[in-house]
Amino acid sequence: MSGTVWKVFKETAQKNSHKTAVIYHGVEYSYGELLFLCQRLAIALHRVGIAKGERVIIYLPHCPQWVISWFSLQAAGACPVPITHFYGSRDIEYIAKDSGAKAVFCCETNYQNIEPLLATNVFKKVIYTNTFEELPKWKDLVNESLAKTRNLPYPKDVLIFEKIMTEDGEFTEPNTHPQDLAEILYTSGTTGLPKGVPFTNDVYIWSTTEERNIVAKVVPRGKAVILQGSPLYHILGQAQGLSGLLAGDTIVLLPRMDIEEVLASIERHRITNMFGTPTFYRMILEHPSIDKYDLSSLMWCYSGGDYLPPAFIERWKAKTGKYIYQGLGATEACGGITMTPGDEQIPEGSLGKVLSIWKAKLVDSDTMEESGIPGQGELLISSDHMINGYWNKPEDTARSFITLEGRLWYKTGDIVRIDDKGWVYFVDRSGDIIKHKGYRVVPSKVEKVLTEHPSISAACVVGIPDEEVGEKIKALVIQKTGQNLATEEELINWCKGKLAPYEVPHWVEYKDSLPTSPSGKILRRKVRTEEREKMAKS
Question: What span, in angstroms and rounded, lies between the C-alpha atoms of 133 and 112?
Answer without folding.
Answer: 19
